[in-house]
Design brief:
By secondary structure, this protein is α+β, with helices and mostly antiparallel strands. It contains 2 helices and 6 strands; from the N terminus they run ββαβββαβ. A 3-stranded antiparallel sheet has the order 2-1-5. A 3-stranded mixed sheet has the order 4-3-6. The protein is globular, with a radius of gyration of 14 Å.
Length: about 120
């Protein structure tokens, strides 16, 4: 499990290394361009509700990964996340989502609906 530290809050957001690696790329890209946006998620630790962070370049941000090895990124997931981050709703993620491996064989079935990769099955 990785940790996302934001601002001066000592308590991190716990996020799987795989999801955190994808979030890091999208966040770094947006902030490098000087673009602020929101990152939202529904709580999965038994606490009811959801949280949203306003991400902007002036606020301290740190990504801490449990694994020393970098995760392999899944390009379609990165594209979906970047599209969401560019929307007025901001980037919304499910903390329990399983992101496909980039080496997983492509399915021959119909394309998946947009944003399926970022939301957990309800």
């Amino acid at each position: 499990m990785g940790h996302l530290y934001y601002g001066t809050t000592p308590e991190p957001v716990r996020i799987s290394d795989r999801l955190l690696a994808h979030i890091k790329v999208v966040v770094a890209t947006k902030l490098r361009r000087g673009e602020s946006f929101t990152l939202s998620w529904t709580h999965v630790d038994g606490t009811p509700g959801r949280s949203t962070l306003w991400l902007q370049p002036a606020i301290a941000l740190r990504f801490v990964f449990e694994s020393a090895e970098p995760e392999q990124l899944h390009s379609p997931t990165l594209k979906d996340m970047a599209d969401m981050a560019n929307s007025s709703a901001g980037l919304i993620v499910a903390l329990d989502v399983e992101i496909p491996s980039p080496t997983a064989p492509a399915r021959a079935s119909a394309p998946a609906p947009r944003r399926t990769s970022l939301r957990s099955a309800a």
